Amino acid sequence: MPDYNDEALYHADNQEDARYVEISCAAFGCKVTEGHIYKLERNFNNPYIFEYGEAYIVDDETKDNYSVFLLCKTVLYK
Predict the structure, then answer these.
(1) Where are the beta strands (DSSP E) in 1-78?
(2) Is the Cα torsion angle 61, 1, 70, 16 positive or negative in sign?
(3) Three-class SS of residue 3?
(4) Separation between Cα atoms, residue 8 and residue 30, nearest integer Å
């Protein structure tokens, strides 16, 4: 079952507006599934560096994955 519960999704202009992320191309070693939409979580532990919280997803191994934006091609949705 998708994380977004079949609600209407719209493209987000930037990461601060996004609530979901679709993986369009996954890198080797990144434990995500291509084509899957993940809920975008935020970590607010360091407000001096990340004004809107550091974005991450919970990957297929149920671990927090902060590197998905560096390793994978993504599409942001709100």
Answers:
(1) 20-25, 37-39, 41-43, 54-58, 64-65, 73-77
(2) negative
(3) coil
(4) 27
pLDDT tens digit string along 9-53?
999 999 999 999 999 998 888 899 999 999 999 999 988 888 888
Cβ–Cβ under 8 Å, residues 9 and 20? yes
Contact 40, 52 (CB under 8 A): no
How many CB atoms sit inside 10 A of residue 51's CB?
A: 8
pTM of the model: 0.85
Residue pair 27/77 in contact by the 8 Å Cβ criterion: no
Q: Could you give the count of Cα atoms lying within 13 Å of 56 in the half-sphere of its Cβ? A: 18
Report the side by side order of strands in the sheet with 41-43: 41-43, 54-58, 64-65
Q: Which amino acid is at 63?
A: K
